[in-house]
Amino acid sequence: MSVVGHIAVGRYESPGRLYGLKIVHGMVDGEERWELESDFLMENFSTSVRSVAYSPQMKMLAAGDDDGNVQLINMKKMQRIGSLGSHSDVILGIAFANKHILAASGDSTVSLVNTADEYNVDLVLKGHKPSTAVAGLAVHPSSKMAATVGDDRSVRLWDLERGTCAMNKTLRARFFGVAWLPDALALVGSRTVQIHRLEDNFESPMAVDPDDGASWTAVRVDGGLLFLGDSMGRVYCFNTVSGELVDVIKAHDQRVKAIDVIRFAKDGYPFVVTVGAGVTESGVALWSTGEGEGRLDLLAEMELPCRATCAAGCGM
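^ that's the sequence the OP posted. Answer follows.
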């Protein structure tokens, strides 16, 4: 059995903590086995950990808290690098774009921090209404654009090379998440997911609504697969090219708080990490995707003594 990756999970309780689980894989008595085991605990947070992201290229983990600070960890050396304090309010989203770390905040801005230039702030994206949070952030796979949704009921597309707002659209509802699809943008709200093809100018979205009066609570996109978690602990997988519902599973007894995708080889199939968050404890699970088809099979799971807020898979 050997360690093939890690899962980082943030907790709500103050002082904040980041739990690190190691993913162990190998053959035992001729059978393939996966296990999740406790590995590290990061306690450099004074308040709740609200967002976390991992860069496979830089082997770097970034976690943001309620105070607007971002802690950085070198996952290859398993060492804390330092912290960024470029915001005055909660960090609600973190993403990587080439050598930059993007942090979306409750102070209505998004900062771009240059990891190749002593972690200086290269740019602050301003456009959402003051005193309204930037609730969701997603970087385009090209790393040339980013999308944000705000509590001001707007979606914005940002040109990261020029540092300008390329599009601003007022929305009829409030959305907490955003994700890039191959030729569209998914806006995630508690009662609906709207899929907008950019060529349609956000006029005729396709809607995906939760079942049984549930609410959407988590989103993750990997290529042509859209993963959605709901308040009843279910995870749905949609093929965004065909529009087909590939799979739906009961992943947790609690609401699904976070979904992430992890790979254990550079060109390997995606695996899925899910976190179900209760009031005092949370469940973490690792799933296979049927060689990238999106059909989810449980590989390993573990309980944590906390109310989880976010998670990131740290693989290749």
